[in-house]
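(Fold this chain)
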Amino acid sequence: GQAVAFDHLGRSSEALELVRDVLAFVATEGLGGIVEPVLLLLHCEAVLTGSGDTAAARRVLHQAATWIETIAARISEDQVRAVFLTKPDHQRLAQRRKLYP
């Protein structure tokens, strides 16, 4: 969230530095324990896209989609899985991924 705020304030280098720190943390620690991992990755993607680093943005979106698929596969009840898959940030991810065919 803070990186997106910096980006909106025109402080893109600071925003990008925060995103790189977040992604380095996620690379070593994973997404477990993060309250809203998809939202976190969507914020990273927004900053990366704004900076013109579309390759990194695409990788982040893929990482978020893979996380959703992994968690959804662990949910045995169809109704619970459907609710999980239709969370607003998960739907937003699906829309963002359409930008990178």
In short: The two ends are 26 Å apart (CA to CA). Helices lie at 2-8, 12-29, 37-50, 54-74, 78-85, 88-97. The CA atoms of residues 74 and 81 lie 9 Å apart. The chain has one domain: 2-97.
